[in-house]
Design brief:
With 493 residues, this protein is α/β, with parallel strands linked by helices. Helices cover 45% and strands 16% of the residues. The two termini are 50 Å apart.
Length: 493
């Protein structure tokens, strides 16, 4: 069977060959190909954008995927599948947006050439949160390893080539899942500028004539499908694609910038769910409290009850209704934004959770659940406690599920093993000292045959876990104790 490339004539080859490189993309992974690259594809298909993308990988280890993409002439297939507006959808698109595909570690001169290209306008990245940090590095003749270091060097070359021209700055759109990601990139770039002795004039040009935009991205991109499904599609299409990518229909890109940038990247005009905004906080808060909060609520509670996937929680005769109640009745009302918008977002979230093509493993979501709970759910519980109101049953249940999940024993290899209500073993992955503290509290409580009220009180009082003594919160201890008792009694099985 043939492999996907331009010889199959599935796209307009001439259109991309003549497209100037207006975007540099640092990041070759599934997410950008299922998110930003797809968006540029949509804009081009609608005749709204003529530029092309030069793609490189941030780390030497990404070379194999770059070589594979180059062997396919920059083409790959994206299949979007799931639930959209209540109906199942499945769409196949061959994405053709890459004008150049190269490895900067073996072709550093090519990277340097892009830096001084007058057509270059935008830099998009996804190097993971670990990639968007400053790490001291010497400036030599060869490729720079760190992503912010590459950006600092690229900008310095550009500054010198265009003699600090104010119209030759770039727009940076980092997609790393880090709050204030644009600010973080800018700050790291300036640290490299200091390390490498770049001029004050250069640093002033960086901050004054380049835009490092904070943004929030949201789409589940599941990458290469199960082998059986991939082979079935290849047989249907008549070609193979080693870079086949799958994604859900939902997508959101909130970008902290003036809407005038729509002239540069006409994403909204193309009908995409993109927002140019002066404040990312509402987007971040609703995602953290609703989507991430629901995930964290489901994860530990589900695992304790022997449930393995998000979709199975929704179908659970007890927990499914409690999950919806937690979000729709008790999380949404605590957020200071238009209720209609929040309810629409929550509806989208549950539609995404129900996607039969995506199997969210609760064990993966439960990793580091303590720190996640503090950020995602504890502020919602605080809303009720601070007002002296009753803690909603569904929120207390989620907290009880978290605490019961950490009823573990420490193994000889240092790992922590818990057991479901039916006695099936699972492994807890979290901060070692905090997992050990919880295990010791549970061990003492079980040895003392403490009742649920005493257990809840002992766990909630630990400042090391929560940053304060939560037994002082109005109505919380009693509500959590009740749900611990009902969990152990099998009410939710």
């Amino acid at each position: 069977m043939l492999t996907l490339n331009q010889s199959l004539q599935l796209t307009d080859k001439s259109k991309n060959q003549t497209a100037p490189v207006t975007i540099l993309q640092i990041g070759e992974g599934n997410f950008l190909r299922g998110f930003a690259d797809w968006m540029i594809h949509v804009c081009r298909e609608k005749g709204l954008y003529e530029g092309g993308i030069a793609i490189t990988q941030p780390r030497p280890a990404g070379r194999a995927k770059i070589e594979k993409l180059a062997s396919q002439d920059g083409l790959y297939t994206l299949v979007t599948q799931g639930i959209e507006n209540g109906a199942p959808v499945s769409r196949k698109e061959v994405i053709d947006v890459f004008s150049e595909v190269f490895d900067p570690y073996s072709d550093w001169e090519r990277f340097k050439g892009l830096a001084v290209s007058p057509e270059l306008q935008v830099v998009i990245s996804n190097t993971t949160e670990a990639g968007l940090v400053y790490r001291p590095e010497e400036l030599g003749e060869g490729a720079i390893l760190s992503f912010p270091g590459k950006v600092a060097y690229l900008l310095h070359l550009r500054f010198e080539a265009f003699q600090g021209a104010t119209d030759k700055g770039l727009v940076f759109l980092p997609c790393e899942l880090l709050e204030r990601n644009g600010d973080s990139l800018r700050d790291a770039v300036l640290r490299y500028a200091d390390d490498w002795g770049f001029s004050e004039a250069f640093k002033g040009w960086v901050t004054g004539h380049n835009r490092f935009l904070n943004s929030l991205v949201d789409r589940i991109v599941t990458g290469y499908p199960a082998e059986e499904q991939a082979e079935a599609w290849f047989a249907e299409w008549g070609y193979r694609d080693g870079l086949l990518c799958t994604a859900e229909p939902y997508h959101l890109w909130a970008i902290e910038a003036d809407e005038e940038l729509e002239k540069l990247l006409p994403l909204r005009k193309a009908g995409l769910n993109v927002y140019w905004t002066d404040d990312l906080k509402p987007f971040q808060q609703r995602k953290v409290r609703i989507l991430n909060g629901a995930h964290t609520w489901m994860a530990t509670l589900g695992l304790v009850n022997g449930v393995q996937h998000v979709g199975d929680i929704l179908e659970h005769r007890q927990l499914g209704a409690q999950a919806r109640s937690a979000v729709e009745k008790h999380i949404v009302p605590t957020l200071p934004y238009p209720e209609e918008e929040l309810r629409a977002y929550a509806s989208d979230v549950f539609e995404r959770f129900a996607n039969p093509h995506i199997r969210h493993r609760l064990a993966d979501i439960a990793m580091n659940a303590l720190s996640k709970f503090k950020v995602r759910l504890l502020p919602t519980i605080a809303y009720y406690a601070e007002r002296g109101e009753a803690i909603p049953e569904s929120l207390a249940l989620g907290f009880a599920g978290l605490l019961r999940y950490y009823q573990t024993t420490r193994e000889e290899d240092g790992s922590f093993t818990g057991r479901t209500l039916d006695g099936v073993a699972y492994t807890v992955r979290d901060d070692e000292s905090k997992a050990a503290l919880l295990a010791s509290i549970w061990e003492k409580a079980l040895a003392d045959k403490a009742d649920s009220a005493a257990v809840a009180s002992a766990l909630l009082a630990e400042k090391e876990l929560w940053g304060e003594d939560l037994t002082s919160w109005s109505n919380l201890t009693e509500a959590v104790a009740k749900q611990l008792s009902e969990l152990e009694g099998g009410v939710y099985r």
